[in-house]
Write a structure and sequence with these properties.
Elements: H1 2-18, H2 27-30, H3 33-38, E1 43-46, E2 52-55, E3 66-70, E4 75-78, H4 82-95, H5 97-106
Antiparallel strand pairs: 1-2, 2-3, 3-4
Length: 107
């Protein structure tokens, strides 16, 4: 009886493995965003206050942000408010005389 349950378990496991989606490994996939994410590692820099500044590239692009990591507790918190930073850049870009003069020279 023990052998029968072992054989049944093996059959069920082997059918589950054979049902998995097998993708063809191509050069296009290797250099695609999905292929790059497989081996992506976070970028990290040590800040002056013994904190780690981390950009986790394994997260979806829409969710990526700089994070501050406390090495003692592994607590993560946003290092910047991304929406506020982008809106201030848009405002400063609109006010910038350099940007408008560059457009005149380039056009």
């Amino acid at each position: 009886m023990r052998y029968a349950s072992g054989i049944l378990t093996l059959l069920l496991c082997s059918s589950a493995f054979s049902a998995q989606d097998r993708r063809q490994l191509t050069v296009e996939w290797i250099f695609s965003d999905e292929g790059e994410e497989v081996t992506a590692l976070p970028t990290a820099y040590w800040a002056s206050g013994s904190e780690l500044i981390l950009l986790d590239t394994r997260r979806p692009k829409a969710d990526r942000t700089l994070e501050r990591v406390q090495p003692d507790s592994d607590a993560r918190s946003p290092a910047v408010d991304a929406k506020a930073a982008l809106s201030s850049l848009r405002v400063s870009r609109a006010r910038s005389s350099w940007a408008t003069s560059w457009r005149r020279c380039a056009g």
